[in-house]
Amino acid sequence: MTETLEAALETVDQELDQSGAPLDSSTRATRDDVAAKTPQFARLTPTHGTADRGLDHLYAVKLDAEVVLGRAALSVDEMLNLGVGSVVELDRMVSEPVDLLVQNVRVARGEVVVLNDQFAIRITEIVGSN
Q1: 15-51: pLDDT as tens digits
Q2: How many whole angstroms separate alpha carbon 96 and alpha carbon 70?
């Protein structure tokens, strides 16, 4: 790593020499001017009890999930003209599945259903990580 740093400093010095700019002791790059060091990291060891828990501690983490029924592109003028009773046409057909996004990543697709007077989604496809 030191050889690479010295080579880079030499290249900078050569470029400055070729540019015709006068180099004095205050402008010439030296190894002492650069504060580059190899990082030293402490050894990580598991604390007591973490190996036994596995991923159980992650199960309580809350994630944002949303269902995307469709999208529409509207101009500012069209947005300002929207009112009660306006209809916005979406880019999906009724027969197409909706997307389930978790943390803005599509993880599944499904169909909209009504469950106890609320909208819900029945998963029909889990999206692969490809």
Answers
A1: 766 665 555 555 555 555 666 677 888 888 776 655 5
A2: 10
Tokens of 103: 């943390």
Which residue from 111, 115, 107 is spatially nearest to 124, judged by alpha carbons? 111
CA distance 78 to 88: 10
Angle CA 99–87–93, to nearest 5 = 35
Tokens of 62: 């809350």
Q: What is the CA radius of gyration of the chain?
A: 30
Cα angle 39, 41, 43 (rounded to 5 degrees) comes to: 160
User: What pTM, to 2 d.p., does this model score?
Assistant: 0.53
Superfamily of domain 55-126: SpoA-like (2.30.330.10)
Residue reference for tokens 């169909």: 111
